[in-house]
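Appendix B. One record, verbatim.
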Amino acid sequence: MPPILELVEGNDGGRTFALGGDVVAGRDPAQPISITDDQVSRRHARFALAGNQVTVEDLGSRNGTYVNGQVVQGRRTLVPGDRIRMGLTVLELRSEAQVAAHPSAVLRQPAITDVPDEVLRPATEADLAPAPQGRESPPEGGSPALRAAEVEPAFVPGAIAHGEGAGADREGYDRLAALLDGRVKRQTNVAAFALLAVAALAVIIYLGVS
């Protein structure tokens, strides 16, 4: 049996064409290899069988002819397993042994899972409504609100925080500033003392080693 061309991608997948002498492939229904593909020229490419050798030649087609992804320039010798693309159609050259081992080179298409209508149900107005605000307790079976109870700052005395006494605004501000200033000064003094202590310890260690 001579080599065959099988249409493996495109319309009418699985069709086979026997090769003998020179045959033309194209969109023209009168051609020996007739291809239903708008991207294929009416006379797209010529296949030739001479002995056991198969060649392909582009006939000046609009979109070109490709073998294994490479554009055909002049005549190109084919071997079994080569894939020839014309437009959106792919043909595969198959030998008698390949056909005997696997009658078709067309890959099986996976079954498409049907999606039920309820999966694609549009969202209702209730689904799109904003979440209620200020809810103190979660609804039955719901999630708790992500909000912590408000507490007074621990570092601000209560009298200042609540503005007790006359002239509370200015007085409270002054007392808070004085409190913060005193704490900063104490922290600065502690840091300076610690630095001096480390320096003295370093000198003692150095003298002891010397």
